[in-house]
Amino acid sequence: MIKNAIKKKFSCMDWRLLIPYIILSGFGILMVYSSSSYRAMTDYNNSEYFFYKQIIFASLGLLGALIASFLSKRIFKNEKTLRYGLRVLFAILAYLLLWPGTATKGARGWIYFGTIGFQPAEFMKLNLILYLSWFISKHQSRINAVFYDTMKKPLLITAAAVMMVFLQPDLGGAAIIAFICLVMFLHCGIKVEYGIMTFGAIGAIYGLIIVVVRTFGSSIPFFHSYQIERITSFIDPFADIQDSGYQVVNSYYALSRGGLFGVGIGESIQKSGYLPEPHTDFILSIVGEELGLVGVAFVLVLFFYMVYRIFKNAIKIKDPFAQLVCTGIGTMFLIQGVINVGGATGLMPLTGVTFPFVSYGGSSLLVSAVSIGLVNNMYINDQISKQPK
What we know:
Layout: H1 2-11, H2 15-44, H3 49-70, H4 73-76, H5 79-98, E1 111-113, E2 116-118, H6 120-138, H7 140-145, H8 147-166, H9 171-187, H10 192-216, H11 225-235, H12 246-258, H13 283-316, H14 320-345, H15 363-386
Antiparallel strand pairs: 1-2
């Protein structure tokens, strides 16, 4: 019985979603090895240090994606489990605010078990997506009638999550959570003009911060020095090449040196101490240097096709819960990809956001892989529901 059920689900898997994910993960392992070998040798006397860890993370991620694909959808809609998950994650985030963990790229939102880092904000994204999907699909009729009275609690939970992640401080993670939840609120019936006003307000705040930094420099309260440096490097990275603009300028050098076809795998110069995070935030810059514009285009085409496939599933699937899950996960990948590419190319300030599946990372890679499994789960259940009984 169980064997037949698994076989039936396997025959309904969304391979047009899974194949790009698998290729990107495999490509990520290759590029992490290439981009991290110098730093791994310098810091750990082992050029394959990050390479082996990435293989482990990718393998665990693939296992997580398969498990998420075949589990019953009811597990992901269980109210008690979702609420318990939120309580645990909020407790961990509160703990990190009161007793900060080890700082990584300026943010103290990490808990380390030996050499393995755990980032609660990554898991908060997925838990919020599932919680909001369950809540909105369950209360849709009431939401249409009295939006704010019905959505008061989810709005407060979202605001609390965004604020706690922002205070880590993790601006990139907070922005991703905010955009995910905003898109899901728009999906459930918030007036379009309110959504436009919210996006406009975000843009206005973003522009105001840039104007304030340009005017007052580093003497701005509530901002850390590294955050101000990220904004000044965005405004004019060449104004201070040896300090605030160092990362962005070296990212430019990597991309320009690669040209159309690149200098070859393993031949990057910028990974040799010039780019501080060549295997995480700036891995696309190393891809551009070693494989050229063609290599970057290969990654982006695969990635955005995968995102397109997720949103297409959100449109075609009939179940409201599944629609919202796909919408939230698609938005998560889209915003994360855009922020990373924007930072590497100087079109957006640096935020420490990695590129899904390609960058080195444990928490991010695991959450991203499980998210793909969840979308696949929603697709499988939709396909089975359409089959004659």
